[in-house]
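Components:
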Amino acid sequence: MFKIIGTGHALPERVVTNDELSTFLDTSDEWISKRTGIKSRHVITGETLSQLAGEASRNALDMAGVRAEELDLIIATSCSPEKVVPGVACMVQELIGAACPAFDISSACSGFLMALDVAAAFFKSGAAKKILVVSAENMTRFVDWNDRSTCVLFGDGAGAVVLSEGDNLLSIRMHTQGTHGTVGIYGPKGNSPFETVDRPERNSCTFMNGQETYKYAVGAMSRDIEEAAALADIGLEKIDHIIPHQANLRIIMATQSKLGIPMEKFCTGIEYLGNTSSASEPIVLDIENRKGRFKEGDILAFTAFGGGLTDGGAIYRW
Ligand code: ACO
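Structure:
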């Protein structure tokens, strides 16, 4: 199906620590660190999300040695896009000077894996030879900064991969369990004179039942790794690195203990990223890749969960 030939990421310059949050919210570094593992997050100030997505994409293209004109497709993922229209993928296409079709996938924090699954189908059909997948999130724009139970969890950033034909993706399996009350982001309230129902909840941005999300996440992420490994006919002990969605260190640790895979195999960046939704996996992938962590032939497992509810897992040979 495909192989990853380049990775890239970009983060906003501004870093906000837990201590800074506690200057205007009834919270503390101790509460946030203990419950989530998050110490700080990058927050968009003057940048735009498309600039970050463009920078992450250029970094991935440079590593791949691929020119933007050579791309056959751009798939972007975001649940916190800069604009509803045009989508992030179209804005990236303009910024990097590509000419191929480009579209967005909205699948919350599972978006990156969903995009890899879609990309795999394009390679399988022969419709594409080079694809850019870019995940970019501005979650700090879609939280209520008066709601300490959600705003402390999120950060902004973008991550990208360039894919070419290859047989390195060994398995991928996505799931959706349509449930709208557990976690979500309301769209704008609007001012249509024809709406007959007042919808005050739409002012409240991101909503979440934390404990329900937590339970769902641990169950889904461990099951998805087991399922993807079985599909690839790989024993769990053969997995060298796990790239989980970065939502909460406690969720990652609970998944680790359920699977019995050593914690050193989990790649984490939650401490300084916060939850960057669909961007979290390609950001962490790029950071670890540039450190030289992955050796040729290593087995990587990806897993994510998010609003929808959606989740999935994949096994990839580096
Ligand atoms: N600082 C201090 N106290 C807080 C804060 C805060 N930032 N937030 C909540 N509290 C308080 C609550 O008010 C509550 O107080 P009370 O006992 O007096 O009522 C207490 O802390 C405990 O709150 P809980 O919600 O029960 O805390 P919990 O241990 O469940 O941790 C958390 C909350 C971290 C959100 C956890 O449930 C979690 O990680 N859930 C999963 C979240 C997640 O993964 N989201 C990703 C999906 S988002 C997406 O897809 C877009």
